[in-house]
Batch of 3 targets.
Target 1
Amino acid sequence: MTAVAGALGPAAQVPAPPGRRAALRTTGLLLGLVLLAVVVLASLAIGTRQIPLHDVWSALVSPSGTENDAIVRQLRLPRTLIGIAAGAALGLAGAVMQTLTRNPLADPGLLGVNAGASAAVVTAISLLGVESFDLYLWFALAGAALAAILVNLLGGSRAATPVRLALAGTAVNAALFGYVNGLQLVDLGTLETMRHWSVGTLAGRDADLLVKALPMLVAGMLLAFGLARPLGAMALGDDSARALGAHVGRTRVLSIAAITLLCGAATAVCGPIGFIGLMIPHAVRVFSGPDPRWLFPACALYAPVLMLASDVVGRVVVPPSEIEVGIVTAFLGGLLFIHLVRQRKVAQL
């Protein structure tokens, strides 16, 4: 636990009194609920066409068939719901990944999930002629699962260590993205189709995709929350975790399964959106601390805030065009990554 606290800076190493710590965590979660409500309203009201909040409310509770009603209910509401679900999944997957690997720079892509999903979708488009986003969902999920299984096997399966998992994930990522880029270069039709999926966006996604992916998202979240206690023990090191009664190998395998379900389903619906799983755990540790029992719910709450806020920013910076949410989060995540590396605190893990 000292190592994890060290990664968060000097202030994190001085434990707050239990009462103050509980109050800080509760306040942080309540603030997250307020921020989520604000960005949901912003997502429904702000865009190429600005819609007053009272019209948004009317469209939701008593639609009268106006154009504003159609925009809110048919375009922005599905987009917002997908952003909430995908954001929560990516944030939670990032928290599980960082806790599992004891690496503050880890995000779900480290397990090859994004690369596996992309490789499966590009194969479906180029070699199988698939053109339906509904089918992309299942190919992306299958590709994410196969990539995660491969990384786990290369990392040593139940005997895997955080370092071996990270190295195996890096190798699989490089190989799969090389395959994706190569297939797109030799098939321009695939390149044109993939660019609409691979950039990572909430625009143009049908709510039916979310309905189909929801069982996987819910299963991944339940599994992640159920692993909070043994993952907290593993943050002390494998030997200490075993002494505390945690099943290290089983916990690691189930954690990889949770990450695959969460990130695979989110990637299948929205395309690969990076850095949310990296940024949010760092941000919420300010009040949640490193304990996964508090960290995981906080990440699941604040990640949709970042996702929707980034989506709203992308709508308004270059009107009437939009910047995809994946580009906005990549820009923000790149700045955070540079900040973390410059502080050199990651070396303390």
Note: The CA atoms of residues 273 and 326 lie 5 Å apart.
Target 2
Amino acid sequence: MATEVYLVRHGETMFNQLNKVQGWCDSPLTVKGIDDLKRTARALSQVHFDNMYSSDLKRAIDTVHLMKNANTVSEIGKIKKLPEFREVFFGSFEGDDIDQTWAQIGQTAGVGHETNVQKIINQVGIGNFREATKKADPRHLAENSAELNERMVRAISNLHQLTKNEKRVLVVSHGDFIKTLAIKYWDQNDGIHDIQFPNNGSVTRGIIHDDGTFEIVDYNKDAEDL
């Protein structure tokens, strides 16, 4: 049985608002974040889900409960938390100022004092950006491309095992993780070039096929587009 997967990005958080690096570190949803999520939840309220899952970070857990509570056509039990669907890990940069962090990574990547992450990625490529992040991290704990790819593959494999008898599920995850999944699994992308960062509360749809292969079929749709 193929399983349709609705990947929802969590709502805006305090760290998003304060322009801080937020990977495995956590911060609460803002009022704006909750309001945006309510629109997404209303748009999905009549979509039947066999189950709902979430990253194990609190901002994702709070988001999935908003989706669950608004849905009137699904009977969802206890939410299972999936650590593999956490955000990308930024190591020692967690909680730091975003502009200062990108400037450090940009210098390591050889593009000078650049604070615009998209410009850095455009110049060096997403793979080299990940390598530069790990190299610039004083403790070298940040995930590089190989580590992140291994975790993505494990995430899809685990989800496939969990959803073998489920036709449609919702999974709350994170912006950079969803984007990286789409770079790898979206047929409109070549698997190399960067793509637009998904919006808070946006929905990306994928399909896990019977044999465990995964593909993204719809990316970064806001509530009004659902």
Note: Helices lie at 14-17, 31-43, 58-70, 98-109, 117-124, 126-136, 145-162, 175-185.
Target 3
Amino acid sequence: MKSFIVSIGICAIWLIALLPLSIAHKLGAFIGWILWITNSKKRKISEVNLRLCFPDYSDDEINRIVKKSLKALGKTYTEMGMSWMWPIPKVHKLITHIEGEEYLQQALDENNGIILIAPHLGNWEILNHFFRTYLFMTVMYKTAKIPKLDKFIFDTRKRVDVGLVPADREGVMSLYKILENKGVVAVLPDQQPRIKSGVFAPFFGQKALTGKLIGEMASTTPAYLLCCYAKRMSDGRYSVVLKPANDLVRDPDPAIAATALNKSIEQCILDCPEQYQWSYKRFRTQPETNINFYQ
């Protein structure tokens, strides 16, 4: 049954890929509106997260961002067809602005390796298309439980010539080896890790279990720390934004490194908060076991 559902989903992505991007975006905005109007779980989680992160915001401000973020999330869904199926040169033409290209050039010139820090902001799949013209990067890949889905995701990402390593101990060791050889790795920094792989650090003033991997790699290698995201512009195309991360991410103290990492992510999010994935339970695990923000 799960395999059948996956087949239907893949067919839907192929069909959406046939649409002009403007129509796909309208469909995505409609999906977001449905998530809003039905008072969905994603809306409730988004509201909780935004109230925690922006306690001074009024109800109207919170509602405005939640509604926009759900529409942005819907667009992210309907952009999968474009990101995964369109000819690569056609996708690349949608990247019409680059902010901070000089930081990428500096990282390449230093030739000490690069750690790309890519939060769930805007369309992170577009980054694969952008970076392939400058470098070869390797990302950790979490295997999907359904083989058909796993193969589909693997093949669509591999077509843009991205290195993929498993999200396990072996994969982590591969990333270290790549950095030792002055290569490029990309890490999604804003998902909750396992307890033993993380440390609690403030994220918009709230305690968030934050992965230690980036800090550990940064403290043991001279790799350039570069935050990156692709924000959706009003014309439906994309601006890739590149920013150096806080250098305290290199601190050997995991708590200091994680705090600096989260501060760097916050600065990215504040550029376009309505395009951040607020529907993820970022504060699900707390040091006080009796706290559950998402009841």
Note: Residues 34 and 94 are 27 Å apart (CA to CA).
